[in-house]
Design brief:
61% of the residues lie in helices and 0% in strands. The chain has helices spanning 3-7, 15-29, 39-70, 74-84, 90-102, 106-119, 124-135, 137-147.
């Protein structure tokens, strides 16, 4: 998907022009402006427009958050995601999934990545990450069970997406196509 063509803007369009084009699409395809026969079509157009708008308006912050996650700066990545608070965005859910996994909240992390995959089912990176996480579920649960046992000293260097302690090539996230090395 080319977000510029979806919104009908050029690559050198300003943020204001992008916002105006997005608003025009919302106005045109609002459920009050379409009949029952074209409702499904309108929903598809709106879904693509939402994704395109999110990528163009929030794209730079998503790149920054990916970089923070790759560098294992999970706290700052989480703060930036919380400020952005775009829960309807596939990319936001994907990145929030990594933050959750890195914090040891595996179930929540997987749910966010499921949400990302549901919001953007064509995204291969999301689908591959979800398959990897699901295939490693038992290993991850076992690790965190041991980690939380009373006889184990506290540590959190396990990579839920790509191996045990110290694994991976970019802060422990090593599958997919993110910043060269992938997030998970």
């Amino acid at each position: 998907m080319d977000p510029y063509s979806v919104l009908g803007v050029t690559r050198d369009s300003s943020k204001d022009e992008i916002k105006e084009a997005y608003k025009n699409i919302l106005d045109e395809y609002n459920s009050g402006n379409v009949d029952d026969e074209t409702q499904a079509f309108a929903e598809d157009i709106l879904s693509e427009a939402n994704l395109a708008y999110d990528l163009l308006i929030n794209g730079d912050i998503y790149k920054e958050i990916r970089s923070l996650i790759d560098k294992n700066n999970i706290s700052l990545a989480e703060v930036k995601l919380n400020i952005l608070d775009a829960k309807d965005s596939a990319e936001w859910n994907y990145l929030q999934g990594f933050v959750s996994c890195k914090k040891g909240w595996f179930d929540m992390g997987v749910q966010h990545i499921v949400n990302a995959t549901d919001l953007d089912p064509q995204n291969e990176e999301y689908a591959e990450t979800l398959l990897t996480l699901r295939s490693r579920a038992n290993e991850i649960i076992t690790y965190y069970t041991k980690l939380n046992s009373p006889n184990t000293p506290p540590q959190n260097n396990f990579n839920p997406c790509g191996g045990g302690p110290g694994a991976g090539n970019s802060g422990g996230m090593n599958l997919g196509n993110m910043g060269g090395g992938g997030m998970c």
